Amino acid sequence: MSAAPPPAPRAPDAPRIAVLVPCHNEAATIRGVVVDFLRSLPGAAIHVFDNNSRDGTAAIAREAGALVHPVALQGKGNVARRMFADVDADVYVMVDGDGTYDASAAPRLVAKLVDEHLDMVVGARSSSERSAYRAGHRFGNVLLTRCAGVLFGRSFDDMLSGYRAFSRRYAKSFPAHSAGFDIETELAVHALQLRMPVAEIPTDYGARPEGSSSKLNTWRDGARILLRILRLWKSERPLLFFSLGALVCATASIVLALPLIDTYLETGLVPRFPTAVLCVGLMVLAGLSAASGLILDAITRGRTELKHMAYLATPPYGTWGAHARSASTE
Length: 330
Hints:
By secondary structure, the chain is α/β, with parallel strands linked by helices. The protein has 2 domains: 17-235, Spore Coat Polysaccharide Biosynthesis Protein SpsA, Chain A (Alpha-Beta Complex); 238-329. The chain contains 11 helices and 7 strands. The chain has a 7-stranded mixed β-sheet, with helices on both faces. The protein is elongated, with a radius of gyration of 25 Å. Mean pLDDT is 83; it is low at 319-330.
């Protein structure tokens, strides 16, 4: 970690704002990102988390006025884990270091978060530039967002945006598990699971400048995000997940057994004995799946309660949060 010029003075009652910028080989854009956010959020501390860049990203960010933190474990999810663990603030603004997000929208995200006592505000991407938001990425985002909405009851319009504002409560209660670009999915599901107050604000989204290349692979990272949704479905909604498995096994067992039952009623014989064994096995598997869902559902409820208690253990920003912090220091 290196020293950087101190941020501009902030009002005594203003929230401490930290801008978190995960980076990997963003030398072409990082200076502009740091300068733009210093201008848009005077008094905020800009933290650049350098994820093994080999093009001088860290040095450029440091010269521009950012605090630079090296992260050895590769992947955006690993960086997010370190960002929330290492930085102390009242409000966190996370933005990619590729220069595609509008820094002038940051005050609106922060104001909405603070004024409405929210825990997360997502900067929903809005762009008419074909090169900025490719059709494949747009379609994949809509598909994955709808999948999450079906599985978890409600969702966002742009679940995969890399531009968000978080409360301290959110940041300090988020148990990051993802290692890569599926971290945005986990960020959204964490808020949905704990029924946190959240919102979205449309923000401009531009194309990468010349000399900058995307680290996102449409098919590989799309498949990874879809697998993350399925894993989260299994871990956070196990009763539904295993009940569907039980229903499939039970239905297959009944369909295969009906001809055997007809034959047995007519002749008193079971000529296809292997099929009968298969039917019994499928029905046993259905019972085991249903029982697993019930047991894991009880465990998940306990885990959710622990997450909620961790969330409540962090005082909110504002009048009540100020009272709690002052009381804890007396």
